Amino acid sequence: MVEQVGYGVTRFAPGDRVYGMPWFPRAAGAFADYLTAPARHLAPMPDGLGFTEAAALPLAGLTAWQILTEVAGVAAGQRVLVSGAAGGVGHLAVQIAKARGAHVIGTASPPKHEFVRALGADEVTDHRTGPPARDVDVVVQMFGGEHGLTALRALRPGGLLVSGQSAWTPGLHERAAELGVRAVGYLVDPDAAGLAALTDLVHKGQLSPHVSETFPLTEAERALNLLAEGHTTGKVVLTVTD
Questions:
Q1: CATH (domain of 227)
Q2: What is the CATH number of the domain that holds 173?
Q3: Do the Cβ atoms of 88 and 237 come closer than 8 Å?
Q4: Could you tell me which residue ranges the Enoyl reductase (ER) domain spans (predicted)?
């Protein structure tokens, strides 16, 4: 919630409910009760979401939105593979791709398959059993290492893999060239217009963040350790006192 606005700010007023991902990838100092941010790094919170659910959207939601719409230009009828489809970015990417009319294939461990189907995925596979799909137009790749290289084999000729972990996938671009496909790395930007698009999807009932666990700020270390294990479903959120 906006506590105070600076000189020249016209987009918001004290008391407004806002959400965003300020300054990223620069540290925003958000493990705190208060922070300062440029007004255009924020947007009005979606109606019907509480602060906890809204906090789950900006980083993961903008990552998925920018990859699918700005980098890959996903359109109706395309086949989209989302790796880690039950994770923070993945579970939102599934919903956004479906909202754009894509045929969505998600990878997840077997206990999470029903969760991914409930998000709207048309197919769900276990990435540990081998190449997850064939003739895919776009791969949203959120795992690095060998998983990223394996996912290239799912693409049709000329298809595109967008990796949020390309720095941890040595040889990704070279292997893509060998297979006749494309691969790019991506890092999300603060984006008020993208936040407004996510809000619109929430209001249409096409996007809903899933919060699996919450921790108070005093337990931020526990939350980070849980995330580091790599087995969370949806988002983990730090909460602040009212």
A1: 3.90.180.10
A2: 3.40.50.720
A3: no
A4: 2-238
